[in-house]
Specification:
Helix content of chain B: over 70%
Largest sheet of chain C: 2 strands, antiparallel
CATH topology of chain C: MetI-like fold
Radius of gyration of chain B: 25 Å
CATH architecture of chain C: Orthogonal Bundle
CATH topology of one domain in chain B: MetI-like fold
Number of helices of chain B: 15
Number of helices of chain C: 14
Distance between the termini of chain C: 40 Å
Chains: A alpha/beta (439), B mainly alpha (311), C mainly alpha (295)
Distance between the termini of chain B: 7 Å
CATH class of chain C: Mainly Alpha
Oligomer: heterotrimer
Shape of chain B: globular
CATH superfamily of chain C: MetI-like
Strand content of chain B: under 5%
Largest interface: B-C, 113 and 106 residues
Chain lengths: 439, 311, 295
């Protein structure tokens, strides 16, 4: 989840729906026929499509592919890397034309599930599931994110969690400690305001930044079972009072900690202000930590989770975030080879290189050490191990209609034209429409 | 517009020549004849008029100037002295913008623009020739078809075109843009060229026919060379259109390696949100070609616009 | 027989144009009308016939009306600026400025129209930035700091800020069209007005305005149909936000089609755009036909 304008999410869902639709025709739902056992001889051609065309990430995958090809001279891997947005279009066209590569990228959650439901993802339970030696090398929460109906389908590549980054110097100067509860966070904001510092650097130009807060607060305020049912397009109702509570809390958070111009500021502009020491906190994904690590002049920073409100009805251990990963084409003729390559890609050594090259955390145990990762990354990794579950981004986990209603509704709430109740009324309408469409 | 009626093609560009002569004959800056004296009101009115003109020139130019200058600044200068001059000419911003994608987008834009200029101009010239210089069955129906094409707007066709292009495999290729830029601009260009061609004397064709030339030979050797001025106008307007087109380029090309400048710039802006100087340098590079083209071919541009607008 | 064959062979000249038009212009428009009667997305195997449901949905959707209203606002402001202000500019240019400078100014005024909308849009989103944008800086500099705001980020100002950018791009373009029209007015008319003792203002109303009527009609029509086809400006600067406050029909149909995967609804919105712009374009055609017949 790197480049994240709202548009991308829509397309993700569009794509997901698309693939579901494709699968329902013809061979849809047919059990995977791919032979996943290790090939007798490592030979043949593999196709692989990623969304890592960005010059920051692309070389890593090229490097790994080259290394595998060198070790197995009879294997030819055709690696195609496209950008974040193009990937969604590309994979949509590829699956529509039944031309899926052997290995393809997927976000966790409903995006992957659609491929599974369409019979386009190979069941990897025997390889990476519980009790397998390969599976035991991963953090369980990451594998769980690619689980569907009790089976494992994805090979997680990275881990991404949302944290509040804070500037230690600014905190010390204002005499504020790390807040333990949501209420303490609000009080801290007041203190920063009094000291003339902007409490949270918050830019919401494309709408998703706000939804990340709401994702976390929903997970805190709504019982997990209700949340799961509501996020499923077939059963979404959004009648739990916790949703309104979450929006009210968010509204208050922005009022006391944010700025009025948030809708007109990009996330990156807000981030730049945090880096410049002009704001005390900034809510970021762990994949963005590198920006702070490389900040010049350096900043003294650390992270904490957005603290849960006192007495919240939901899961206080849930963490907003999700892993990304790879799926294997269920109809691949070289599935065994594909699995072998993915094992190579997720070796501790390669995982560690990824963390070193661009500061992404790998779900492979022991891949982050003080040698290849900043201390904040390591504490994020420790923390993710503790997370009971990932609360997947609200704008990707839900149906496009619902996500759209949330996005525009929260924007309206921030600019004062809607109340939390009105936002949820819009979401419920959208959920009804989604139910009709899916059911 | 009735440009053709007022100035036959052989008269050439009319918007510069004739009117300017008038300007010399009646100097515009002249006190009203009535009073003879230069009144205060007259002065005030002139001052007001001039300030409107000058004010508008500043309003038009300043943002562009700011764009060019900010392309040389560093972030700190942009944020802290937004009105100031850059402390140094940081060409590296331009170099970085170029490397970070502008070169690729630029090349793509050139490919699509050039190909669509060639296709549009040729196909339109053929059709215009067929329509106004040859006797053709269903000529009127064809003319009506072309005329109707002028009334249809691209936005409306976005969704069916998406279906069409994906089903014939043109989605995400240069061809998608080249074909669409041609198809949607052919009606306009046909009418532009036809209006000019229609004025060419019939005797030319007749003489050539008597010499034994076929229609094909007449077209390539006689008519096309004679139409050069309007072809240049047509090509320039097509360049402006294709270089700047956004909606088709946004929807029908998704591979970053094939994006044209307008869409690429947006992608670049979202990648480099905090690096204003580089983005602004990229904008400057993107804006230059059409501005230069306009400055170089102003007369043809304006002729094309004023004639095309009335068709 | 041979003559007939020769005549038919002439069809080859128009064939490429006709084919292109039929396949890529006419077929899609017709297809759009059909598709607007179905509920479907790009990949659903069988579109489901829903009759006029998509239209009913659009007409019951407040965002649809919001978008339409924004298109109307676009049209009104553009009319005032691109038909009114630019005519005044053109007249001033002709009245006050000497030959050399006039050419220069005319060129300058046109430059924004020669830059792409993306360039202009991205540039203006910098100018509108709430923290560092020139617009707010300028307001502060002249003591109007209280007017500073997040121009593109507030529901009250987003669409107007986009419209303002469009005027920046459009005024010079129509001013140049008017300059050409004014230059075509026979010189004697101005002479006669001067002899009658008419000042510049009266000359403007009694000579210039009536004599550029044709061009004015054209500009009015172009401006209105342009306002209903607006897409790029909004897409680049706000994508329709915040809270859909700056949606126009073009971006709303794009949003429905490619974000919410509601292709049928999007096709219905497209049909509305088609009807409006086709009516305007047909009007233009009728007017220019009549003009030709008059001449």
């Amino acid at each position: 989840m790197k480049v994240r304008t709202t548009r991308h999410h829509w397309t993700a869902l569009l794509l997901a729906l698309a693939t579901a639709a494709c699968g329902s025709g013809g061979t849809g739902g047919a059990p995977a026929t791919a032979d996943l056992s290790a090939p007798k001889e490592k030979a043949g051609t593999l196709t692989m499509v990623t969304k890592f065309a960005d010059p920051q990430y692309a070389p890593y995958f090229e490097k790994v592919v080259a290394a595998y090809e060198q070790a197995n001279p009879k294997v030819d891997i055709k690696l195609e890397q496209v950008g974040d947005q193009p990937y969604k279009d590309k994979i949509r066209v590829l699956s529509a034309s039944r031309d899926l590569p052997d290995i393809y990228f997927s976000w966790a959650g409903d995006f992957a599930n659609k491929f599974v439901r369409a019979g386009l993802a190979a069941d990897l339970t025997g390889q990476i599931g519980p009790g397998t030696s390969w599976g035991s090398t991963f953090a369980p929460a990451a594998l769980k994110a690619f689980e569907y109906g009790g089976r494992n389908y994805g090979v997680p590549l990275d881990l991404d969690g949302k944290y509040m980054a804070y500037d230690k110097a600014v905190f010390a100067k204002a005499g504020v400690g790390v807040p333990k509860t949501f209420e303490e966070l609000l009080t801290a904001c007041d203190a920063f305001r009094k000291a003339g510092v902007q409490p949270i650097a918050f830019g919401n130009q494309y709408g998703w930044a706000a939804l990340h807060f709401v994702t976390q607060l929903n997970a805190y305020d709504v019982p997990p079972a209700t949340l799961r049912a509501d996020y499923d397009p077939a059963t979404g109702a959004f009648t739990d009072p916790g949703y309104v509570t979450a929006l009210k809390q968010f509204s208050e958070l922005v009022g006391r900690c944010g700025t009025k111009d948030a809708n007109g500021l990009s996330h990156e502009t807000a981030q730049a202000q945090f880096i410049a020491g002009k704001a005390a906190m900034h809510y970021v994904e762990s994949v963005e930590f590198e920006v702070f690590v490389k900040a010049n002049p350096p900043i003294d920073w650390d992270i904490f989770r957005l603290p849960a409100p006192a007495g919240a009805a939901g899961d206080p251990t849930a963490l907003t975030g999700a892993p990304d990963g790879f799926l294997v084409n269920a109809r691949s003729r070289n599935a065994g080879l594909a699995v072998d390559f993915l094992k190579f890609l997720s070796s501790k050594e390669n995982a560690a290189t990824m963390t070193k090259d661009f500061s992404w955390l790998s779900p492979v145990k022991g891949s982050a050490t003080s040698e290849n990762a900043a201390p904040q990354l390591i504490s994020a990794l420790d923390d993710m191990d503790k997370a009971g579950q990932f609360a997947v981004w609200l704008d990707t986990v839900t149906h496009a209609e619902v996500a759209s209603a949330y996005l525009s509704g929260v924007e309206g709430m921030l600019s004062g034209s809607r109340t939390p109740e009105q936002v949820m009324a819009g979401v419920r309408d959208a959920a009804a429409k989604a139910r009709k469409e899916v059911g | 517009m009735t440009a053709v009626k007022q100035g036959a093609p052989e008269e050439g560009a009319l918007e510069e020549g004739a009117p300017e002569k008038r300007a010399v004959a009646v100097p515009p800056a002249r006190p009203p004849a009535r009073g003879g004296a230069v009144t205060l009101r007259w002065v005030a009115a002139r001052v007001l008029g001039w300030s409107v003109l000058a004010g508008f020139a500043v309003a038009v130019l300043y943002p562009l100037l700011w764009m060019v200058l900010s392309g040389f600044k560093d972030n700190q200068e942009i944020f802290e002295q937004p009105w100031g001059l850059p402390g140094a000419l940081r060409w590296e911003n331009y170099a970085r913008a170029w490397e970070l994608g502008v070169v690729r987008y630029f090349t793509n834009s050139v490919i699509v623009t050039v190909a669509s200029i060639v296709a549009t101009t040729l196909i339109s010239a053929w059709a215009a020739y067929g329509l106004c210089r040859l006797r053709m069955p269903f000529g009127n129906a064809v003319a009506l078809l072309v005329l109707g094409g002028l009334l249809l707007s691209p936005t409306v066709a976005l969704i069916p075109l998406f279906r069409l292009l994906t089903s014939i495999g043109l989605f995400d290729t240069y061809w998608a843009l080249i074909v669409l830029y041609t198809a949607f601009r052919v009606p306009f260009t046909i009418f532009l060229i036809r209006a000019y061609m229609i004025e060419l004397p019939r005797e030319v064709d007749e003489a050539a026919t008597l010499d034994g030339a076929s229609p094909t030979q007449i077209f390539w050797r006689v008519i096309l060379p004679m139409c050069r001025p309007i072809l240049v106008s047509a090509a320039l307007l097509q360049a402006l259109f294709a270089w700047n087109e956004f909606a088709f380029a946004l929807v029908f090309v998704s591979d970053d390696a094939m994006k044209t400048l307008p869409v690429g710039l947006m992608a670049m802006q979202s990648r480099l949100l905090t690096d204003w100087p580089v983005v602004l340098a990229g904008l400057t590079i993107a804006a230059l070609p059409t501005i230069l083209l306009f400055l170089a071919g102003q007369r043809q541009f304006i002729r094309g616009l004023t004639e095309g607008v009335g068709k | 027989m041979g003559a007939l064959l020769t005549r038919w062979r002439t069809v080859v000249w128009v064939l490429p144009a006709v084919l292109l038009l039929l396949v890529f212009v006419y077929y899609p428009i017709a297809d759009n009308l059909r598709l607007s009667l179905f509920s479907w997305n790009a990949f659903s195997p069988e579109p489901r016939f829903v009759g006029l449901d998509n239209y009913a949905e659009a007409f019951g959707d407040p965002v649809f009306w919001r978008a339409l209203l924004n298109n109307v606002a676009y049209a009104v402001v553009s009319l005032v600026c691109q038909a009114g202000v630019s005519l005044v500019l053109a007249a001033l240019l002709e009245e006050l400025v000497g030959r050399r400078l006039r050419g220069l100014l005319r060129t300058l005024y046109f430059i924004p129209a020669a830059t792409s909308i993306t360039v202009a849009g991205v540039l203006f989103s910098f100018l509108y930035n709430p923290r560092y944008g020139l617009v707010n800086e300028a307001l502060q500099a002249v003591g109007l700091g209280h007017l500073a705001r997040a121009w593109l980020g507030e529901e009250g100002s987003a669409i107007w800020s986009v419209i303002a950018m469009s005027q920046w791009q459009g005024i010079g373009y129509t001013a140049v069209l008017f300059v050409v029209a004014i230059q075509r007015i026979p010189r004697e008319f101005f002479e006669a007005a001067r002899v009658d003792g008419a000042g510049p203002v009266r000359t403007f109303f009694s000579v210039t305005l009536p004599m550029v009527r044709e061009m004015t009609t054209l500009v009015v029509i172009l401006t209105i149909s342009g306002a209903f086809l607006v897409f790029n400006e909004v897409m680049v600067m706000t994508s329709g936000g915040p809270d859909n406050s700056s949606q126009v029909l073009g971006t709303w149909l794009y949003h429905q089609a490619f974000f919410e995967d509601d292709m049928g609804y999007a096709a219905a919105v497209a049909t509305v755009v088609f009807v409006v712009t086709f009516a305007i374009a047909a009007l233009q055609l009728a007017l220019s036909r009549r003009r030709r017949d008059d001449a």
